[in-house]
């Protein structure tokens, strides 16, 4: 598939994914969702990529939402299929074996807010705005908004944001825990890349197992979650990275690099 709406770039061990529909405020249509699916499959299969930055083209929007012009005349079946497509792609991002950082450079509304929530970490421009405005358009959030928002900010706040269709600024998103940090617009992408590089400098298998343990643990009771952690912890001792790093520590020397083995 030729990529028309998504750009994939690599900088050392970092992949930078840019949704590139600035004239449409990077709105997610079916074609763009399918391209995102392809791009993240490519990233998953690229052992050289250790962390990902996801952002939107232009200065106005990360993703302003799903493409209303495509949705407005959908049947019930078409609506369900569109929602399933978006959910499948976002779930692929959420369960990717590499951490994904959303660099939210503008509007993150509806599907855009949902896309950011499928990422591991969200950092925002001070001009960013977040919201789930779907009920004002006669629909529910369809790409995970009713589920991930409450897991991130709590049920009461999530219900308020969803029921009211309220749009909040970056500082409010930071206050409620929806984003990790706020940056000047011109510094956002570089700060996201710097964070990705810091993550990529650590043992890749250990980072992968941490992500898996956190994600799985959030879905179950604490005892089951701790069992997941024990499994991940034990698995680390089968890696060369664990042996090399702990040997270097005991010998009081710095490890040159992790092998991802």
UniProtKB/TrEMBL annotation:
CDD domains found in the cross-reference section: crotonase-like
EC number: 4.2.1.150
UniProt xrefs under SUPFAM superfamilies: ClpP/crotonase (SSF52096)
Protein family membership: Belongs to the enoyl-CoA hydratase/isomerase family.
Keyword hit for Lyase: yes
Enzyme class (EC, first level): lyase
Name of the protein in its database record: short-chain-enoyl-CoA hydratase
Keyword vocabulary terms for this entry: Lyase
Subunit structure, as described in the record: Homotetramer.
InterPro entries: ClpP/crotonase-like_dom_sf, Enoyl-CoA_hyd/isom_CS, Enoyl-CoA_hydra/iso, Enoyl-CoA_hydra_C
Biological pathway: Lipid metabolism; butanoate metabolism
Reaction catalyzed: a short-chain (3S)-3-hydroxyacyl-CoA = a short-chain (2E)-enoyl-CoA + H2O
Pfam families per record: ECH_1
An annotated GO BP: fatty acid beta-oxidation
Keyword Lyase assigned: yes
Domain of life where this protein originates: Bacteria
GO molecular function, one term: 3-hydroxyacyl-CoA dehydratase activity
């Amino acid at each position: 598939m030729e990529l028309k709406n998504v750009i994939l770039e690599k900088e050392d061990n970092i992949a930078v994914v840019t949704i590139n529909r600035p004239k449409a405020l990077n709105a997610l249509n079916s074609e763009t969702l399918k391209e995102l699916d392809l791009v993240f499959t490519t990233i998953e299969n690229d052992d050289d990529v250790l962390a990902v930055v996801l952002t939107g083209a232009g200065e106005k929007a990360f993703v302003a939402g799903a493409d209303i012009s495509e949705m407005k005349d959908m049947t019930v079946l078409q609506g369900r299929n569109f929602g399933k497509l978006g959910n499948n792609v976002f779930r692929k991002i959420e369960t990717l074996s590499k951490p994904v950082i959303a660099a939210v450079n503008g509007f993150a509304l509806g599907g855009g807010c949902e896309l950011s929530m499928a990422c591991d970490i969200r950092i925002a421009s001070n001009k960013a705005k977040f919201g789930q405005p779907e009920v004002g358009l006669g629909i529910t959030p369809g790409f995970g908004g009713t589920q991930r928002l409450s897991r991130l900010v709590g049920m009461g706040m999530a219900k308020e944001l969803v029921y009211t269709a309220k749009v909040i600024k970056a500082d409010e998103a930071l206050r409620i825990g929806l984003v990790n940090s706020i940056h000047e617009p011109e510094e956002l992408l570089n700060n996201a890349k710097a964070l990705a590089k810091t993550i990529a400098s650590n043992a890749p298998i250990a980072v992968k197992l941490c992500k898996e343990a956190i994600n799985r643990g959030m879905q179950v009771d604490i005892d089951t979650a701790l069992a997941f952690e024990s499994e991940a912890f034990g698995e680390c001792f089968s890696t060369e990275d664990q042996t090399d790093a702990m040997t270097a520590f005991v010998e009081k020397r710095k490890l040159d690099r992790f092998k991802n083995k």
